[in-house]
C-alpha cells in the first residue's frame, strides 16, 4: 500500500480532455523512508505536488496554443505535469522536472492514462547545479515564486539552463514575489510582458492570475556578468 489516497480528475485543456490521477486531498502524507524530508520537503508541503492548482491549469492552457516549433522546453516544479502532458500531446521536445520523489511516477502514470508516450523527466533541485540537464529555448513553471528566496534561486537556475535567445513563461497567482524575479531576469537581458488572467470561474477583473512572458534575444552574452551563455 502506498500510504496515501488518490482520485482521478477530468480536466479539459485546449481541445482535449485529460484524465489526471491526483492526491485525493491536501491531508495526504507518506514518507516512510524519509526521502522527502531529506530533500527538504516538510509534511505540510508533501501533498502540494499532487494537487491540480489553478496556476497549473492556466499554464497548461497557455501551452495548448503556445508557439513551440523548434524549441527545447523545460517545465520546472512540474507537480502532476499538466503543462508537460499538453506539450507531449503536441509533439514538443519537453523535459519535466521537480524535486518531489513522487512527481516522476505520477507523471508517468498520467501519461499512460492519456495514451501518451512517457514524458522525459529529471529530478531537479533549484539550488544544485545539474550540468547534464543542458540548456533550453523555453522554460515554463506555474506558481513557483511562492517563497521570497525563490526569485534568486530560479534566476540562477535559468542562467545555467537557458540559451542566449530564450523565453520564460511563468503563471503566478499574485503572491507578490514576481517583482524581484523580474528584476533578476532584467539583469540577464530579459524583457517581460504581463497578461492578467482569471484563476477560476469566480475570478473577476482585475484578475488575480499573472501570465509573465520573459524574452531574451542577445548575441550569446549575458548582460548580468558578460559571460557567454
Automatic annotation (TrEMBL):
Keyword terms, alphabetized: Methyltransferase, Transferase
Name the UniProt record assigns to this protein: Methyltransferase domain-containing protein
PANTHER family assigned: HEPATOCELLULAR CARCINOMA-ASSOCIATED ANTIGEN
Organism listed in the record: Dokdonella soli
Molecular function, one GO term: methyltransferase activity
SUPFAM superfamilies with a match to the protein in the record: S-adenosyl-L-methionine-dependent methyltransferases
Pfam families (alphabetical): Methyltransf_16
GO biological process, one term: methylation
InterPro entries (UniProt xref): Methyltransf_16, SAM-dependent_MTases_sf
Amino acid at each position: 500500500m502506498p500510504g496515501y489516497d488518490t482520485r482521478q480528475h477530468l480536466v479539459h485543456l485546449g481541445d482535449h480532455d485529460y484524465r489526471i490521477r491526483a492526491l485525493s486531498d491536501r491531508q495526504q502524507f507518506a514518507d516512510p523512508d524519509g526521502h522527502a524530508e531529506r530533500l527538504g520537503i516538510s509534511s505540510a508541503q508533501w501533498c502540494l505536488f499532487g494537487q491540480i492548482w489553478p496556476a497549473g491549469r492556466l499554464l497548461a492552457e497557455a501551452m495548448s496554443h503556445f508557439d513551440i516549433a523548434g524549441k527545447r522546453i523545460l517545465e520546472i516544479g512540474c507537480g502532476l505535469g499538466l503543462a508537460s502532458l499538453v506539450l507531449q500531446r503536441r509533439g514538443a521536445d519537453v523535459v519535466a522536472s521537480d524535486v518531489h520523489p513522487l512527481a516522476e511516477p505520477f507523471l508517468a502514470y498520467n501519461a499512460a492514462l492519456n495514451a501518451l508516450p512517457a514524458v522525459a523527466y529529471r529530478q531537479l533541485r533549484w539550488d544544485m547545479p545539474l550540468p547534464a540537464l543542458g540548456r533550453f529555448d523555453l522554460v515554463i513553471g506555474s506558481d513557483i515564486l511562492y517563497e521570497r528566496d525563490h526569485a534568486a534561486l530560479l534566476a540562477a537556475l535559468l542562467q545555467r539552463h537557458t540559451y542566449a535567445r530564450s523565453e520564460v513563461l511563468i503563471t503566478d497567482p499574485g503572491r507578490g514575489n514576481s517583482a524581484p524575479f523580474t528584476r533578476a531576469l532584467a539583469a540577464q537581458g530579459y524583457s517581460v510582458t504581463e497578461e492578467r488572467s482569471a484563476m477560476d470561474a469566480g475570478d473577476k477583473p482585475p484578475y488575480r492570475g499573472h501570465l509573465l512572458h520573459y524574452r531574451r534575444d542577445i548575441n550569446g552574452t549575458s548582460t548580468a556578468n558578460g559571460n557567454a551563455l
